[in-house]
Amino acid sequence: MNVKKFTANTSREAWRLVREALGPDAVILSNRTVNGAVEILALAGDDVSSLAEPAVEKEALPKTAPNLFAPERVHNVPAAAQAEKFDAVQAREREISLQELNAMMGEIRSMRGMLESQLAEIAWGTQQKREPFKAVILREMLAAGFSASLARYLLEKLPANEKPENSIKWVKSVLSRNIGVMENENEILDKGGVYALVGPTGVGKTTTTAKLAARCVMRHGAGKLALITTDGYRIGGYEQLRIYGKILGVMVHSVKDETDLRIALDELKNKHTVLIDTVGVGQRDRMVAEQVAMLQGAGTKVKRLLCLSATSTGETLNEVVRAYQGDGLAGAIITKLDEAATIGSALDVVIRQKLNLYYVANGQRVPEDLHLANRHYLIDRAFKLKRETAPFRFQEDELPVVIANTARTMNDKSLREVSLG
Fold it and tell me: What is the C-alpha separation between 288 and 70, in angstroms, rounded?
């Protein structure tokens, strides 16, 4: 019996050496990994017969007794099958190792996050003692509704040796500079085109459409304007816009799908301005994508204006913008300004998402309660409408915890794109 040892970097290379030396009928006695290499002990198929017992002794055994010395009892399995089995074992081991590595990396990331939060909290506590005016600015921004991450980012970028009384002015100027607005109303009223007001339910799209329609009629007359509604789901949705249209002397067209919209826009191509009031769709509804696709496939360039309610939280507004963003989103309109306790959250989202703000709406009157966006007025109003009630206003000893929670968001791309001057 001649047992041979084969060593190679991989299992398949080792199997190849076995087959070349001992043939395809070689019997694998053992395989293992030694110092990163695969080591195989193998025996030629002809040598296996020597392990069998003598013929005389075999006859003495009962016919039903198993032959313990038969070649198949000595791992008499083809080399290819052994290779597949060994590869499967190695693959399983790699899978387990990968799972363990992922779990370990998750723990490391968690520990890193905790460490970053604790360091941020300690650093802020030290800075708060050295520069107490920064705590005042932070409280003002949080009370106005701006996010803690944006507030911390601006405080870290505050010019050195800036006088405390000028610091809040610098912050306000940076915030104003980063709010994109439609400088002149002529972009809509004089240029015309097809505009669709989109957004979640209840943000005031129909009323805002009526306000815009009234401005168009006052500028160019009722004959130059057309109204379209896709709101066939909400009870009274079409009827509400039809009433506004009747007051303005403008026909309202109702469409159900992309084909209807194509036909309607083709019939109305001689109109100077076409306003589309769309059905309200929640930002997590798959119908958002279907609605965007319908407007983009209408055969005519449709500019979408996203209506954002000032009463919504920053987290909700961020979701809305991410859902409705894409080709064709011309800008945004902030609605319900009169109902919001704070408006910093809405302005924070406009700054982060680089939205072009067209109008702000602050009431139900048509068309009076629609105004061209004024960045300086909005920032000034945001700091005047700050939270004054104790349950929602951060206290001095709570600020380090607030700053600590921003540790993971300071690398946000939207913050790095904020223009400082």
Answer: 71
Residue type, 246: K
CB-based contacts of 351-355 (< 8 A; 24+ apart in sequence): 351/150, 351/175, 351/178, 351/179, 351/418, 352/150, 352/318, 352/412, 352/414, 352/415, 353/318, 353/321, 353/325, 353/414, 354/180, 354/414, 354/417, 355/180, 355/306, 355/321, 355/331
What CA–CA distance (Å, rounded) separates 385 from 387?
Answer: 7
The C-alpha atoms of residue 7 and residue 21 are separated, in whole angstroms, by: 13
| Burial class for 344, CB neighbours closer than 10 Å (0-12, 13-18, 19+) | buried
Q: Global pTM? A: 0.67
Provide the angle, in degrees to the nearest 10, between the axes of the packed helices 79-130 and 11-22. Answer: 160
The residue ranking higher by pLDDT, 388 or 247, is: 247
* Residue 273 three-state SS: strand
The reply to whether omega before 391 is within 30° of 0 (cis) is no
| Structure-block tokens of residue 45 | 């198929």
Where is average pLDDT lowest: 35-39, 306-310, 391-395?
Answer: 391-395
Q: How does residue 9 score in pLDDT terms, banded at 50, 70 and 90?
A: confident
Token pair belonging to 408 = 């993971």
The helix or strand, by DSSP H or E, that contains position 205, with its residue range, turns out to be: helix 205-220
